[in-house]
Amino acid sequence: MSMTRRSYAAAEGLDPLGRLLAQQRTVVMGVLNVTPDSFSDGGQFTNPDIAIAHARQMAAEGADILDIGGESTRPYTGMTPVSVDDEMARLQPVLPAVIGLGVPVSIDTIKAKVAAWALGLGAAIVNDIWGLQRDPDMARVTADHNVPVIIMHNREAADPAIDIVADVTAFFARSLDIAARAGIANDKIVLDPGIGFGKTPEQSMTCIARLDAWKQFGRPLLVGASRKRFINSVVPTEPGQRLPGSLAAHLIAVENGAAMIRTHDVAETAQALRVAAAIRSAK
Predict the structure, then answer these.
(1) Residues 94, 52 contacting (CB under 8 angstroms)
(2) Is the pTM of this model over 0.70?
(3) Which of 228, 229, 274, 283 is an active site residue?
(4) CA dist., res. 256 & res. 68, Å (int)
(5) Containing domain of residue 82, as a range?
(6) Smallest Cα–Cα separation from 277: which of 26, 22, 2?
(7) Is 257 a residue whose pLDDT tops 80?
(8) Contact in structure between 222 and 257 (CB atoms under 8 Å)
(9) How many domains does the chain have?
(10) CATH number, domain with residue 233
Protein backbone atom coordinates (compact mmCIF):
# COMPACT_ATOMS: atom_id res chain seq x y z
CA MET A 1 0.00 0.00 0.00
CA SER A 2 1.37 3.43 -0.86
CA MET A 3 2.22 5.89 1.86
CA THR A 4 -0.11 6.08 4.83
CA ARG A 5 -3.45 6.49 3.16
CA ARG A 6 -4.99 6.58 6.63
CA SER A 7 -3.24 9.90 7.14
CA TYR A 8 -5.08 11.52 4.25
CA ALA A 9 -8.15 11.98 6.44
CA ALA A 10 -9.25 11.35 9.99
CA ALA A 11 -11.82 8.72 10.81
CA GLU A 12 -14.65 11.16 11.35
CA GLY A 13 -15.99 14.22 9.58
CA LEU A 14 -14.65 13.25 6.19
CA ASP A 15 -15.71 14.63 2.85
CA PRO A 16 -16.74 11.94 0.32
CA LEU A 17 -13.26 11.70 -1.18
CA GLY A 18 -11.68 11.43 2.25
CA ARG A 19 -14.00 8.57 3.14
CA LEU A 20 -13.04 6.73 -0.04
CA LEU A 21 -9.31 7.20 0.51
CA ALA A 22 -9.60 6.07 4.12
CA GLN A 23 -10.76 2.66 2.88
CA GLN A 24 -7.19 2.00 1.72
CA ARG A 25 -8.11 0.66 -1.68
CA THR A 26 -7.70 2.22 -5.11
CA VAL A 27 -10.44 4.74 -5.84
CA VAL A 28 -12.01 4.43 -9.31
CA MET A 29 -13.23 7.57 -11.06
CA GLY A 30 -15.51 7.06 -14.06
CA VAL A 31 -15.39 9.55 -16.94
CA LEU A 32 -18.53 11.16 -18.35
CA ASN A 33 -17.96 13.67 -21.14
CA VAL A 34 -21.12 15.50 -22.23
CA THR A 35 -19.19 17.05 -25.10
CA PRO A 36 -19.30 16.67 -28.88
CA ASP A 37 -15.52 16.63 -29.33
CA SER A 38 -13.71 14.71 -26.58
CA PHE A 39 -10.84 12.65 -27.97
CA SER A 40 -12.24 9.23 -27.08
CA ASP A 41 -16.00 9.45 -26.62
CA GLY A 42 -16.95 12.84 -28.04
CA GLY A 43 -20.60 12.96 -29.05
CA GLN A 44 -21.55 9.64 -27.44
CA PHE A 45 -23.18 11.23 -24.40
CA THR A 46 -24.56 14.55 -25.60
CA ASN A 47 -28.06 13.11 -25.30
CA PRO A 48 -28.99 13.62 -21.62
CA ASP A 49 -30.86 10.33 -21.28
CA ILE A 50 -27.91 8.38 -22.67
CA ALA A 51 -25.46 10.29 -20.48
CA ILE A 52 -27.47 9.66 -17.31
CA ALA A 53 -27.88 5.99 -18.19
CA HIS A 54 -24.12 5.71 -18.70
CA ALA A 55 -23.47 7.36 -15.34
CA ARG A 56 -25.85 4.91 -13.70
CA GLN A 57 -24.07 2.02 -15.43
CA MET A 58 -20.63 3.21 -14.28
CA ALA A 59 -21.90 3.48 -10.71
CA ALA A 60 -23.20 -0.09 -10.92
CA GLU A 61 -19.87 -1.26 -12.34
CA GLY A 62 -17.91 0.09 -9.39
CA ALA A 63 -17.19 3.78 -10.01
CA ASP A 64 -16.48 5.45 -6.67
CA ILE A 65 -16.63 8.91 -8.24
CA LEU A 66 -18.27 10.17 -11.43
CA ASP A 67 -16.22 12.86 -13.19
CA ILE A 68 -18.40 14.94 -15.48
CA GLY A 69 -17.20 17.58 -17.92
CA GLY A 70 -18.89 19.89 -20.40
CA GLU A 71 -15.85 21.16 -22.27
CA SER A 72 -13.42 19.00 -24.21
CA THR A 73 -9.80 19.19 -23.13
CA ARG A 74 -8.47 17.09 -26.05
CA PRO A 75 -4.92 16.89 -24.74
CA TYR A 76 -3.27 16.04 -28.07
CA THR A 77 -5.16 17.71 -30.88
CA GLY A 78 -6.30 20.96 -29.36
CA MET A 79 -9.70 21.95 -28.08
CA THR A 80 -12.48 24.33 -28.98
CA PRO A 81 -13.10 26.61 -25.98
CA VAL A 82 -16.69 27.13 -24.97
CA SER A 83 -18.25 29.93 -22.97
CA VAL A 84 -19.38 29.57 -19.35
CA ASP A 85 -23.00 29.66 -20.50
CA ASP A 86 -22.46 26.98 -23.16
CA GLU A 87 -20.61 24.71 -20.76
CA MET A 88 -23.36 24.99 -18.16
CA ALA A 89 -26.01 24.47 -20.84
CA ARG A 90 -24.39 21.13 -21.73
CA LEU A 91 -24.22 20.10 -18.08
CA GLN A 92 -27.62 21.33 -16.90
CA PRO A 93 -29.74 18.46 -18.33
CA VAL A 94 -27.37 15.85 -16.90
CA LEU A 95 -25.57 17.04 -13.78
CA PRO A 96 -28.49 17.19 -11.30
CA ALA A 97 -29.61 13.68 -12.23
CA VAL A 98 -26.07 12.30 -11.97
CA ILE A 99 -25.64 13.92 -8.56
CA GLY A 100 -28.94 12.31 -7.59
CA LEU A 101 -27.47 8.84 -8.15
CA GLY A 102 -25.76 9.14 -4.79
CA VAL A 103 -22.19 8.66 -6.03
CA PRO A 104 -19.80 11.58 -5.36
CA VAL A 105 -19.54 13.76 -8.46
CA SER A 106 -16.44 15.60 -9.61
CA ILE A 107 -16.87 18.63 -11.87
CA ASP A 108 -14.19 18.63 -14.57
CA THR A 109 -13.79 22.29 -15.52
CA ILE A 110 -11.21 25.05 -15.80
CA LYS A 111 -13.78 27.77 -15.10
CA ALA A 112 -14.42 28.96 -11.54
CA LYS A 113 -17.98 30.07 -12.40
CA VAL A 114 -18.84 26.60 -13.70
CA ALA A 115 -17.25 24.99 -10.66
CA ALA A 116 -19.19 27.22 -8.27
CA TRP A 117 -22.45 26.49 -10.09
CA ALA A 118 -21.84 22.73 -10.07
CA LEU A 119 -20.84 22.72 -6.40
CA GLY A 120 -24.00 24.63 -5.62
CA LEU A 121 -25.99 21.82 -7.23
CA GLY A 122 -24.23 19.22 -5.11
CA ALA A 123 -21.00 18.27 -6.89
CA ALA A 124 -18.45 17.20 -4.30
CA ILE A 125 -15.03 17.63 -5.94
CA VAL A 126 -13.34 20.08 -8.33
CA ASN A 127 -11.13 18.58 -11.05
CA ASP A 128 -9.02 21.36 -12.57
CA ILE A 129 -6.76 20.33 -15.45
CA TRP A 130 -4.77 23.54 -14.98
CA GLY A 131 -4.11 22.96 -11.29
CA LEU A 132 -5.57 26.29 -10.03
CA GLN A 133 -3.21 28.18 -12.35
CA ARG A 134 -5.55 29.17 -15.18
CA ASP A 135 -8.64 30.81 -13.62
CA PRO A 136 -7.54 33.07 -10.74
CA ASP A 137 -10.88 32.50 -8.97
CA MET A 138 -10.74 28.70 -8.94
CA ALA A 139 -8.79 28.39 -5.69
CA ARG A 140 -11.13 30.79 -3.90
CA VAL A 141 -14.25 28.95 -5.11
CA THR A 142 -12.79 25.64 -3.96
CA ALA A 143 -11.86 27.05 -0.58
CA ASP A 144 -15.23 28.75 -0.12
CA HIS A 145 -17.06 25.46 -0.73
CA ASN A 146 -14.57 23.49 1.40
CA VAL A 147 -14.36 20.65 -1.13
CA PRO A 148 -11.46 18.54 -2.38
CA VAL A 149 -9.63 19.61 -5.52
CA ILE A 150 -7.68 17.56 -8.05
CA ILE A 151 -4.66 19.56 -9.16
CA MET A 152 -3.47 18.36 -12.55
CA HIS A 153 -0.22 19.27 -14.28
CA ASN A 154 -0.55 20.78 -17.72
CA ARG A 155 1.46 22.61 -20.35
CA GLU A 156 0.44 24.60 -23.42
CA ALA A 157 2.54 22.29 -25.59
CA ALA A 158 4.86 19.33 -25.22
CA ASP A 159 8.59 20.01 -25.15
CA PRO A 160 10.65 16.84 -25.56
CA ALA A 161 13.77 18.64 -24.33
CA ILE A 162 12.57 19.28 -20.78
CA ASP A 163 12.92 17.15 -17.68
CA ILE A 164 9.23 16.31 -17.31
CA VAL A 165 9.55 15.11 -13.72
CA ALA A 166 11.16 18.39 -12.68
CA ASP A 167 8.52 20.34 -14.61
CA VAL A 168 5.65 18.53 -12.92
CA THR A 169 7.30 18.96 -9.52
CA ALA A 170 7.68 22.71 -9.98
CA PHE A 171 4.09 22.99 -11.24
CA PHE A 172 2.74 21.12 -8.22
CA ALA A 173 4.73 23.35 -5.88
CA ARG A 174 3.20 26.47 -7.48
CA SER A 175 -0.30 25.03 -7.32
CA LEU A 176 0.07 23.99 -3.69
CA ASP A 177 1.23 27.50 -2.84
CA ILE A 178 -1.85 28.94 -4.56
CA ALA A 179 -4.04 26.48 -2.67
CA ALA A 180 -2.47 27.33 0.68
CA ARG A 181 -2.85 31.07 0.13
CA ALA A 182 -6.52 30.56 -0.75
CA GLY A 183 -7.11 28.56 2.41
CA ILE A 184 -7.59 25.12 0.82
CA ALA A 185 -6.77 22.50 3.43
CA ASN A 186 -3.84 20.30 2.46
CA ASP A 187 -5.85 17.15 3.16
CA LYS A 188 -8.35 18.17 0.45
CA ILE A 189 -5.80 18.08 -2.37
CA VAL A 190 -5.10 15.30 -4.88
CA LEU A 191 -2.23 15.56 -7.37
CA ASP A 192 -2.48 14.33 -10.98
CA PRO A 193 0.60 14.38 -13.27
CA GLY A 194 -1.67 14.86 -16.29
CA ILE A 195 -0.90 11.92 -18.53
CA GLY A 196 -1.01 13.11 -22.14
CA PHE A 197 -1.39 16.79 -21.34
CA GLY A 198 1.50 18.88 -22.66
CA LYS A 199 3.69 15.79 -22.82
CA THR A 200 5.22 13.56 -25.44
CA PRO A 201 4.19 9.89 -25.24
CA GLU A 202 7.58 9.12 -23.72
CA GLN A 203 7.10 11.79 -21.06
CA SER A 204 3.67 10.41 -20.19
CA MET A 205 5.20 6.99 -19.64
CA THR A 206 7.97 8.53 -17.56
CA CYS A 207 5.37 10.17 -15.31
CA ILE A 208 3.74 6.80 -14.61
CA ALA A 209 7.10 5.14 -14.04
CA ARG A 210 8.28 7.95 -11.72
CA LEU A 211 5.19 8.55 -9.59
CA ASP A 212 7.35 8.15 -6.51
CA ALA A 213 8.92 11.52 -7.33
CA TRP A 214 5.77 13.25 -6.07
CA LYS A 215 5.32 11.34 -2.84
CA GLN A 216 7.33 14.18 -1.32
CA PHE A 217 4.16 16.30 -1.34
CA GLY A 218 2.33 13.87 0.92
CA ARG A 219 -0.86 13.96 -1.12
CA PRO A 220 -2.82 11.17 -2.87
CA LEU A 221 -1.87 10.71 -6.52
CA LEU A 222 -4.37 10.23 -9.35
CA VAL A 223 -3.48 8.75 -12.73
CA GLY A 224 -5.72 8.96 -15.77
CA ALA A 225 -4.06 6.96 -18.54
CA SER A 226 -7.32 5.72 -20.04
CA ARG A 227 -7.13 5.40 -23.83
CA LYS A 228 -4.33 7.97 -24.03
CA ARG A 229 -2.12 8.47 -27.06
CA PHE A 230 1.05 7.08 -25.50
CA ILE A 231 -0.57 3.65 -25.81
CA ASN A 232 -0.82 4.21 -29.55
CA SER A 233 2.90 5.04 -29.63
CA VAL A 234 3.65 1.55 -28.28
CA VAL A 235 0.94 -0.41 -30.10
CA PRO A 236 -0.84 1.55 -32.88
CA THR A 237 -4.53 1.56 -31.98
CA GLU A 238 -7.56 3.84 -32.05
CA PRO A 239 -8.78 5.18 -28.68
CA GLY A 240 -11.57 2.63 -28.39
CA GLN A 241 -9.07 -0.21 -28.84
CA ARG A 242 -6.74 0.82 -26.02
CA LEU A 243 -8.32 -0.99 -23.08
CA PRO A 244 -5.47 -3.50 -22.59
CA GLY A 245 -2.88 -0.74 -22.65
CA SER A 246 -4.97 1.36 -20.29
CA LEU A 247 -5.23 -1.50 -17.82
CA ALA A 248 -1.48 -2.15 -17.98
CA ALA A 249 -0.72 1.52 -17.33
CA HIS A 250 -3.18 1.77 -14.46
CA LEU A 251 -1.96 -1.39 -12.73
CA ILE A 252 1.63 -0.15 -12.90
CA ALA A 253 0.49 3.27 -11.65
CA VAL A 254 -1.08 1.68 -8.58
CA GLU A 255 2.07 -0.35 -7.94
CA ASN A 256 4.00 2.93 -8.11
CA GLY A 257 1.77 4.73 -5.62
CA ALA A 258 -1.41 5.93 -7.34
CA ALA A 259 -4.36 6.07 -4.93
CA MET A 260 -6.92 6.95 -7.62
CA ILE A 261 -7.51 5.91 -11.23
CA ARG A 262 -9.59 7.87 -13.74
CA THR A 263 -11.01 5.66 -16.50
CA HIS A 264 -13.53 5.42 -19.33
CA ASP A 265 -13.81 1.64 -18.76
CA VAL A 266 -15.04 1.24 -15.20
CA ALA A 267 -16.03 -2.44 -15.05
CA GLU A 268 -12.80 -3.70 -16.59
CA THR A 269 -10.62 -1.35 -14.54
CA ALA A 270 -12.37 -2.16 -11.26
CA GLN A 271 -12.00 -5.88 -11.90
CA ALA A 272 -8.31 -5.59 -12.79
CA LEU A 273 -7.59 -3.53 -9.68
CA ARG A 274 -9.44 -5.91 -7.39
CA VAL A 275 -7.76 -8.99 -8.80
CA ALA A 276 -4.33 -7.36 -8.52
CA ALA A 277 -5.07 -6.37 -4.91
CA ALA A 278 -6.22 -9.91 -4.10
CA ILE A 279 -3.03 -11.39 -5.54
CA ARG A 280 -0.86 -8.94 -3.59
CA SER A 281 -2.65 -9.82 -0.34
CA ALA A 282 -2.16 -13.57 -0.97
CA LYS A 283 1.62 -13.41 -0.60
Answers:
(1) yes
(2) yes
(3) 228
(4) 26
(5) 22-281
(6) 26
(7) yes
(8) no
(9) 1
(10) 3.20.20.20
